[in-house]
Amino acid sequence: MGGFNRTFHYSVMIAEGKFSCKGGGCQRRAGCGLSAVSFGGYTVGVKILGIETSCDETAVAVVEDGRKLLSNVISSQVAIHRPYGGVVPELASRQHVVTIGAIVDQSLEDAGVGWEEVDAVSVTHGPGLAGALVVGVNAAKALALTLELPLVGVNHLEGHVYAAWLEEEPPDRVVGFPLLCLIASGGHTDLVLMSGHGEYRLLGRTRDDAAGEAFDKAARVLGLGFPGGPEIQRISEGASGEEKLPRAWIRGTLDFSFSGLKTALLHRAQAAGIYPPGGLEEEETEELVRELAGAFQDSVVDVLTTKTLKAASDYGARGVILGGGVTANRLLRERIRAKAELPVMIPAPILCTDNGAMVAACAYYQLGRGAEGDFSLEVDPSLGLG
Ligand code: KG4
Ligand code: ZN
C-alpha cells in the first residue's frame, strides 16, 4: 500500500462497503505505512484525535474506527466557574489555552499512540462559546498543519448523537435508520430525525431555556451548587413525590418550554421561605429543597420522555438515541427505557456530557462520506443541526 496518498486514506466509502484511495505518493513519510486497512468492506485501524472545547471542558480523545475508545481525557473547569454559579466565557477560553497542550499529550499517552499513528485531527467548531471554540479550532489547525493530517470540523450537536456509536454494536447496525435523537444539553433541547449518516431533520426544539440551563437555574434557586443537573439528581433521591410542578406541553408541536416551570419553582421556593435563602432552619430547608428538586426533575423528565417517544412514533423511527449532558440523568434514562417500545440507546454518562470521543466518532463518519476540512475552518457559535 506504499503508494497511497495519506491525505486520502479516509475516503472510505462505507455506504458501498469499499475502501477507496485516490492515489498519489504519500507526502508524509516514505513508504507510507498505512495504519488503516480494509477488512470485510470496512476500514479498520483509523485513529482519529477528537478535540472539544466548546464550553467548560477541555477534552481530547483518540478513537479507532469511530467506535473504539483508545483514550478519553476530560479536564473539567467546574471548580473555576462554580463560585460564579455558571460558566464565565472569558475564564473558560483562558483555561482552555492553559490546558489544551497537556490534554492532547495525555490523550495520546493514555491511548498508547504516537503521532505517526494518528490519521486525522477533528475538532468541535460550533455551536458553543466563541472564544472557547477558537482555542480548540486553532489547536487542531496547528496540529493538522504541522503533521500534515486531515482536519475535520465537527458540529457539537452531531457529536452528541455519535456518542451512541462508541459501542460495540452501533445504532445503525443494531436497529438501522431512521433514528430519533434527543439532544439535551446546557444550550440545546433538540429533537432530530436522523435518516442516515449526516442526514438530519430538526423536529422540535426549546422555545426558551434549554433543559440543562433550566436544571442549572433551578439549582441556583434551591441553593444547590453548579452544575445544577447532577446536584438536583443527587438531592432528589428520597423525595416523596408528593410535591408537583407544572409541565408545558405546547400541544400540537414537538417544541419544548422550560421557563414556566422555572418560574413556578421560584414562586414555590419563595412561598415556602427557602428563597431568598436564610429564612429557615437548615433541616427544614433541606427537606423542602429535596421535594422541590424532585418535582422539578420529574417535570423535566416527563416532558422529555413523552415528547421524544411521541416524535419517534410520529416519524416511524426504528430506535431512539439520547445525547447531551442532561441525558446523563438517571431518572430520564430509567423512565425512557421503561416507557419505550423500541430500542433506546443512551451512552454511558461520561459520554453524555462533553467529551472529545464523540467528536472523533462523528469525524470518522464524516471522513467516510469524503469530508475533508480545509484550513479555512471557522468557529460557528450558533451552528444548528437539521
Ligand atoms: O452536554 P453538556 O455537557 O454541555 C453542553 O453542551 O452544554 O451539558 C451540560 C448540561 C448542564 O446544564 C448540566 O447541568 C446538565 O448538562 N447535566 C445534567 C446531569 N449531568 C449534567 N442534567 C441533569 N441530570 C444530570 N445528571
Ligand atoms: Zn454538549
Q: What does it look like?
A:
By secondary structure, the protein is of the alpha/beta class. It has 2 domains: 6-167 and 353-368, ATPase, nucleotide binding domain (Nucleotidyltransferase, domain 5); 176-346, Nucleotidyltransferase, domain 5 (2-Layer Sandwich). 39% of the residues lie in helices and 19% in strands. The radius of gyration is 22 Å and the shape is globular. The two termini are 38 Å apart. Mean pLDDT is 90; it is low at 1-35. Residues 156, 160, 185, 324-325, 354 line the site of zinc ion.
From the 3D coordinates, which CATH architecture of the largest domain would you assign? 2-Layer Sandwich
Mean pLDDT: 90
The spatial strand order of the largest sheet comes to 7-6-5-8-9
Q: Tell me the radius of gyration.
A: 22 Å
- Note the overall shape: globular
Beta-strand content estimate: 15-25%
CATH superfamily (homologous) name of the largest domain: ATPase, nucleotide binding domain
What characterizes the major β-sheet? 5 strands, mixed
Structural class: alpha/beta
Q: Can you count the helices? A: 12
Number of domains: 2
**How far is the N terminus from the C terminus?**
38 Å
